[in-house]
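Dear colleague,

Following up on yesterday's call, I've attached the two folding results inline so they're easy to grep. Please treat them as preliminary; we haven't cross-checked anything against experimental data yet. The first protein's sequence and structure tokens come first.
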Amino acid sequence: MRFLNLGGYAAHSNSIYRLTKNEVDELAAETGFAAQLVVEEHGKGIMVHQSRGNKAVQTDSHIGTERYLHCTAFGKAMLAYYPRERVREVLDRHGMSEQTSKTITSMEELSKECEEIRSRNVAFDDNEQIEGVRCVGVPILTNTEEVLGAISVSGSTRHMDDETFRKKVPELIQHTVRVIEINYSNI
């Protein structure tokens, strides 16, 4: 229990956490799903904040949870904006293990998807990390396109139909991220 104090201090001293916490909470309330702030550290996505709506799926994720980047919407959203060398570094370090039968496991397929993510500024995880769970992720970028982290929203395939997954949730996250990026540029 004594580590809770250290964890709380670390989160609250992070400027991205302070700028996103309320936005993530509002996103979870508005969508009814789980909303997360994730940052990359040592080539993995680290969950910094999570808020759960009334339709949120119960998974094993919590503050501090580490996830691979190649099979998550938030991870792919960040990888899409990293320089090629950094992407190669991350994948050389952690590989591209298959989490489900839908996980991308080839560099060629991931590169193609990263191009698509950059063109639409949104990433999708459709049962790639956890069977039965869909996730939408949008990177948080500086004015020079440096990746600060990503916001994602996840829900069960039962509650997140195609229109919600491909259109409604991405629009909500993109709006939220624009607010965060504007606020970040003013600090």
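Below is the second protein, in the same order (sequence, then structure):
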Amino acid sequence: MKAADVMTRRVLTVTRDTPLEDAVRLMLQQRISGLPVLDEAGALVGILTEGDLLRRVETGTVKKRPHWLELLLPPGRLAAEYVHTHSHKVEDVMTAKVIVVTPEAPLEAIVDTMKRARVKRVPVVDNGRLVGIVSRADLLQTLAPPADEAPTPASDEEIRTRLWAELEQSDWAPVKLISVEVHDGVVALKGSITGEWEREALRVAAENTPGVKAVEDHLAWFDPLSGSVLEPDGDEARAGRRRPAP
């Protein structure tokens, strides 16, 4: 998926001359945590975020330093901090260096950018023009399909084929030690694993396969150092641990 697939296209913006109080009021009313800032020609010149407003004279959160330390700081830095914490114009408070992406940017790259830069949103720019914005909320939308979306019907063979294809492309999956059986939508995992995380990963892979109703765990734990195999005890050994799919 790309930025264009998930981005919000109708973006609320402000200008450099917008009064800070108006921008903050807009953020509160619309329940958003950031506003792109445009110049007179409509080009993106900054972004105003909640983080830009954490230290303000109105809230008494302006950074306080010992007097001796302030004497060591360049006067220009102290003056710049004063502007940022006291000005009532968006231009003086916004973040000017904006990280942007293009509509073709893959979601993996966008997530990497968000984590590396510690930002919650990235504007989407095409030929110098703002065309959308991708926020963390937009990314979460991809995890929640529409409530009225019908589940995809699948035969037992289709389920097994899809699940096995997923396992074969996963470096962690012990495909040479396990087998997968499917009956009436119930996946039975059999064979050996070398660690409990493999058991959980196999369960998740099975549960994520369209059409799966439940997963039965018949897996035995194999210790590669001693060569011993630990089978489930009691009823688990006879029937396997069964969990319904989400």
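For the second protein, one point worth flagging: DSSP finds ten helices and ten strands in the chain.

Best wishes,
A.L.
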